[in-house]
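Q: Joint fold for the lines below.
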Amino acid sequence: MSPEPLINTAKYSTAELLFFAAGGLAWALAYMGVLREIVRNKFVEIPATAVAANIAWEFTWGIVYRTDLGSIFAWGYRLWFLLDVFIVWGLLRYGVRQLATPKLRESFRLAVVLAILAFSGTLYLLVRQGYDTSTGLVSGYMATLMMSALYIPQFFRERDRAPYSPFVAWCKLLGNGLVIGFCVLVYPENRFLQTLCAVTLLLDVYYVWLFHTRRVAAASA
Amino acid sequence: MPVATPEWFNTSQYPVPLLILFGVGCFGWVVAYVAIVRNALSNQFLEIPAGAVVANIAWEFVWGFLYPNELGRFFSWGYRIWFFFDLAIVYLLFRYGDRQVELPELKAVFRPACVFGIAAWGVGIYFFVGEGYDTGYGAISGYILNTMMSALYVVIILRHGQLVDFSLVVAWSKMLGTALLTVFNFIVQPGNPYLLLLCLLTLCLDLLYIGLFYAIKTGRVAALVSATREEAR
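A: Joint structure:
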């Protein structure tokens, strides 16, 4: 048995790997932007449900299963996981603000922990059942689509009270866009994945548009 | 891909008691749908969360009209009946659904968002089945929606809080209907732990919802609910 390559150029072309790597880097930057807001403003901008799904996905694909993109990418998934551990910490500490009621504080933390466990269990079994790709992108885009959808109503609810980051909005769009490029090149026959990608991209573009429209309106007011 | 069967009831693959179990579970959902429509008409508030309505109608369209049902033609017609009931719910969603959201900006985009949601779910479920991810009667896609719906029900009752707008008949019939389908899945799909976990999560959330309903009704969490509403304003 040959050892795992650092980068799997036998299965994936250079262009495909570059798309994925650039997208992954943009996502790592988005996470850092989120962390910066947590430290500066004690605010977690990613919706709580999406944080729970994300950390569960990164645990499933970074620790339990292994991507076949090569060991550098496997460590990249683990880096996402590590960054997300800090985001989860921020969520447990400050995320109750997303709920709009301090009375739910105690149940909020319990709900977050239960949601992480529930997502981890379902994602683990989804992959074991053979429904995912060898890079985890079917389950990954199920979680990402949910995040992109949840961002919009939360932004409407919180935008006047919370410091949403344009840097995160753009990195998220760019990261998704580049990984979607990878999906289009590598899985052109998987229409379900393509649909998830297309809907996620539309929602991300809408969010960035919304973000800038509101900013311009606020500035002129 | 699901395989079409010419029989009304596929008794060669599924024993009659199992088909009856599935049929009774489906009937539980018909009771829930009727109660949802009746309540929405009298309260002018649609209790079923908008996110669940758009996913449901898309699922029923895909499984009622685009793919055959492995359980038999009778069940395809059952799914179509659900679809027609759900059309009434979708109508009510467009009429009263924006009362589920409070911000004027969200109300303004509510209807286009519902149209987008139905289209996105419809295409997504169609290809999910086409990729071979589902069972021959739509259980996996159905339970992905069901888990989401049950979670959203817990959120909406806490956020809205006025029990008069929610129905105990719906709470029980959806829990019992889903529970019977869950038993069916445990018997028919023992080798699919992913589906079985979705079934269990849905059951837990449905029971939590019923528990919350009674807790609000008896006043035990009344302070919590009214605080939620006050803060939301």
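Q: Anything notable?
A: Residues 14-220 of chain A form one domain. The CA atoms of residues 52 and 115 of chain A lie 6 Å apart.
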